[in-house]
Amino acid sequence: ICERTLIAVKPDGVQRRMVGEVIKRFEQRGFKLVGIKMLQASEAVLSKHYHDLQKKPFYPALIRYMASGPVVAMGSMVWEGHNVVRSSRLMVGETDSSQAKPGTVRGDFSVHISRNIIHASDSVEVAEKEIGLWFHTAELITWETNDHSDLYQV
Ligand code: CMP
């Protein structure tokens, strides 16, 4: 199975210089980076991205937080790999950072649900939608791995 997911370092993660740490963890795991950018997220993109949360009481604060500084789309990264959606969710940890296990990004670096550093798509279907929202097709590079670094030939 080859899946893609969207990983985004949120504005608090960028402020805290966590971009490298996040990339490092996903590269070490063997995921392939196929797209990366830094951007100031627009209200238009954020309202689509968080469409399902529109009715939640924390929604306005969530949008303010996500628009408060640049996101590395790297804040958003798109990675390709086996079961990348499920494994990346495990690496990221629980949404509520106070419940996230040590060893996860949130469990190691965050204590609060509303400043949880990183986004990871929660299903394959959602991932495809989110990638389409944050990236143009031409911005995704499906490069070939060479014999020495190929982690995918199983
Ligand atoms: P994430 O799971 O990446 O996407 C939805 C975000 O909404 C979540 O991270 C949190 O940042 C935020 N969120 C979810 N639930 C709450 C909550 N109860 N209070 C504040 N923020 C929340």
TrEMBL record:
| EC number from the UniProt entry | 2.7.4.6
Q: At which positions is ATP bound? A: 10, 58, 89, 95, 106, 116
Which of UniProt's keywords are assigned here?
A: ATP-binding, Kinase, Nucleotide-binding, Transferase
State the family named in the UniProt similarity comment for this chain.
Belongs to the NDK family.
What's the protein name? Nucleoside diphosphate kinase
Provide the reaction this enzyme catalyses: a 2'-deoxyribonucleoside 5'-diphosphate + ATP = a 2'-deoxyribonucleoside 5'-triphosphate + ADP
Domain spans labelled Nucleoside diphosphate kinase-like:
2-142
Q: Which residues form the active site?
A: 119
Q: Where is the signal peptide?
A: none
Organism lineage string: Eukaryota, Metazoa, Chordata, Craniata, Vertebrata
Which cofactors does the annotated protein need, by name? Mg(2+)
